[in-house]
Structure formats: C-alpha cells, structure tokens
Amino acid sequence: MVTSEEHLMNLVVNAFGREMEVYAYQVNVDNYTTMLDALPLGPWPERLQDYRATPIEQLPVDMSEDDVGLIADFQYRDRITGLLRTEKVEQGKARRVLEALKSQIGDDYDNLLAAHKAVQG
What we know:
Layout: H1 4-37, H2 65-105, H3 109-120
Helix pairs in contact: 1-2, 1-3
C-alpha cells in the first residue's frame, strides 16, 4: 500500500519532470524563434510557388543557385514555423499537467520541489 507521504513525493517527482519538460519546450521555442529571424519573411515569391514541396535535389538543374538557396530558405522557414507551433502546443499540454500536479500537491509545492531538487544535486 502506498502511503500518503509516498504519494505526495511521487507527485513532486512527476511535477519536477513536467517542469523540466516545459523548460525543454521553451528552449526549442527560443531556438526556433531565433532561427526564424535569419530566414525570409512574408509570402513565397510568385515565381517559386510551384517549388514549395519540391525536394532540393529534384529542382531543375539549370535553376540559378540564388533561386535554389531561396527555395531552400523558404522551405526551411516553413518547416521551422511548423515545428515552433508544435512545440508551443506541446508545451501548453505539459503546463496543464504541471498545474494539475501542483493543485494536488498544494500550498507546500515550492518547498517540496526545492527539497527534491536539492536531493537531485
């Protein structure tokens, strides 16, 4: 039989894991946001629209290197934008679970979490 103290400690351990998960998602959000700053803004150029889903190795061999680079940048921008959205959604889910754990742990959450972190070293 699990004691109430063991149950509480299990909740704290799980909450710590969720805090780390939320943090990891934030690292990815920050990285993707920074990466997007270096990629093109706005809509795809009209002349390149047909190549949105074309793998780089399948682009016409006579296409200019500048256009190949631009297509690659726009494709990468679109991929990073999708990844950024996914990270934000998943982070929101992790935050909801963390809040549920916090509500079960109660008012002593911060102290219990600090004690658990101290043991982790």
